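Recall that a protein's primary structure is simply its ordered list of amino acids. Everything else, from secondary elements to tertiary packing, is in principle encoded there. The following example makes that idea concrete.
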Amino acid sequence: MNYEKFVKEVKRGVEDIVERELGEGVVVVRNVLKNNNVRRKAISIVRKEEVATPTIYLRNYFVDFKHGRDMTNICTEIFNMYLYSMDSFNADIDLRDIADFEKVKTMIHYKLINYEMNKELLNKVPYLKFLDLAIVFNIVIEEDMYNSATALIKKEHLDMWNVSKREIEDVALSNTPKLMPPVIIRMEDMLAEMIINDISMNWDNEEDESADTGQENYIKEDCVYGENSKEKMSEYVREEIEKMKCDDKIDMYVLTNEKRINGAGTIFYDGLLKKFADKIEKDLIIIPSSIHEVILIPSDNGITDEEVNEMIDEVNENELETVEILSNHMYLYRRKEDRIYM
């Protein structure tokens, strides 16, 4: 089954569930324009009393289907995701409030994207251009590393709210550091964090499975990973990561936000780069590793701009999905001028 036929089958399956469980509702499949001019097929369930509905992308479901996942299971999960998302929406905000600027302005934040790769999108939205990048604005309903419920602010929103682009800019520049506090972490600590989180997720799954069996002797505190407790394993991971760092290795720092999503925009937080550069008494090379974070390197590191740009090209081509690419070259922050250069 090819992708187009798969999408049609999913639509038909979700329609059957909607009719059986809800009695009414229209299932819609759309081509959604995402970051960097990427288009993805998505499915939505539209009902009369709802002013907004979650957009559920189908690409990963097709991959699951190709690996043997049952079509009925996929359609059921999509429907349940719709129900869960609508409950979450309703808990966080009355979506009718989006028409009232005063009620949503505390939830407006910005994110950083590539200018050239998003020209079609930028024709439809207010934005700020900086070098070869662009700042766009979102209403954040719910956003973390696992879930994202945001509404991109378009030009028609400004007309509906009767506010200027400058007002949106001012609100977003003020809100974003509060909504998405910055984090600067050593690369070694970031790697350790990722490994420990992965271990913990596997750990939690094992705990849930043990608890579900109803074992009388199941005691959560007694769970171990291999021969070690969770705390001991975390300590071991950090020690091993530290051993990987040779004395002459370049110091690298990851700059993102606490939620680890759309964190590249932290480079514009007032005074943040200046404070960090003054602390280490160096100018900074900024590597745009993705839309979610950047990597900071002291400028006197012994590697050339060409080597850094080659590394960025390599990562963009082989490691990142197109929607996550921010830029294909480094930037330089000079602390005396407090300014970023291409």
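The two ends are 46 Å apart (CA to CA). The longest strand covers residues 133-143.
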